[in-house]
């Protein structure tokens, strides 16, 4: 386990396995455990999972946050652990951060895996409304709608417990970071190996949106995961790990 100092926050990170490094970033509202079952299936890689600010065991300073800060947090994790030549894997918000980090630090990131994510998540207004709702009513009030968009989620009680335990201010402040982000232009300038993944039942980031984002990067590949919703790393860990392993092998990250 690691405690990493970033701007105005201490971040929690954990790791498993040995070998070439893969860094995993989670989605909005959950924590690094989203990737545990996938990392367990990649023992021949050094798998780093961290909690974003406002989530899990990392600090939750008062918001709003900026996407630049979330990207800088990912950079701080990599620099503190003296990582280089990493493949960065992100689901949903984590995939957006992956795009931003690759744009900022192409010297650090050699490949991307983007799962259920986008270069832009809709218009700003709904995100500001969600931030206001989190601050006024807490996470329990938001959880049913969020989980309905994540379906299918077989292990519903643990997921709901982790979602409702997320710091409401951290969640709201992160929503405000998403509201102000449009990575279409910077992502379209990337030139590095990239693989996209999406559940065919994902209501939060429909497959066409994910495919559109991934195809901004020339030479990228895209794979649908049948029967999966937004949280494919949780519900279909073996299939997700198989895709990641194949991608890592194809780019010589072994």
From TrEMBL:
InterPro entries: AB_hydrolase_1 (IPR000073), AB_hydrolase_fold (IPR029058), AB_hydrolase_sf (IPR050266). It holds the Pfam family Abhydrolase_6. Transmembrane segments: none annotated. One of its GO terms (cellular component) is membrane. Keywords: Hydrolase. GO terms for molecular function: hydrolase activity. Residues 22-242 form the AB hydrolase-1 domain. The keyword ATP-binding does not apply. This is 3-oxoadipate enol-lactonase. It comes from Thalassorhabdomicrobium marinisediminis.
């Amino acid at each position: 386990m690691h405690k990493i100092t970033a701007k105005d926050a201490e971040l929690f990170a954990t790791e498993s396995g040995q070998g070439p490094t893969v860094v995993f970033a989670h989605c909005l509202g959950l924590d690094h455990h989203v990737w545990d079952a996938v990392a367990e299936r990649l023992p021949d890689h050094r798998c780093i999972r961290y909690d974003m600010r406002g989530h899990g065991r990392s600090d939750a300073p008062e918001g709003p946050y900026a996407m630049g800060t979330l990207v800088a947090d990912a950079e701080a994790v990599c620099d503190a652990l003296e990582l280089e030549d990493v493949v960065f894997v992100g689901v949903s918000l984590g995939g957006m951060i992956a795009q931003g980090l690759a744009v900022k630090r192409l010297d650090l990131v050699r490949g991307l895996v983007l799962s259920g994510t986008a270069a832009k998540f809709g218009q700003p207004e709904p995100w500001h409304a969600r931030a206001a709702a989190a601050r006024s009513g807490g996470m329990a009030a938001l959880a049913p709608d969020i989980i309905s968009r994540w379906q299918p989620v077989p292990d519903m009680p643990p997921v709901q417990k982790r979602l409702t335990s997320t710091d409401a201010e951290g969640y709201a402040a992160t929503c405000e970071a998403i509201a102000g982000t449009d990575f279409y232009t910077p992502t379209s300038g990337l030139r590095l190996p990239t693989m996209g993944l999406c559940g065919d039942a994902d209501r939060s980031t429909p497959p066409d949106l994910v495919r559109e984002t991934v195809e901004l990067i020339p030479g990228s590949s895209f794979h649908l995961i049948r029967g999966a919703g937004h949280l494919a790393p949780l519900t279909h860990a073996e299939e997700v790990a198989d895709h990641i392993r194949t991608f890592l092998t194809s780019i010589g990250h072994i």
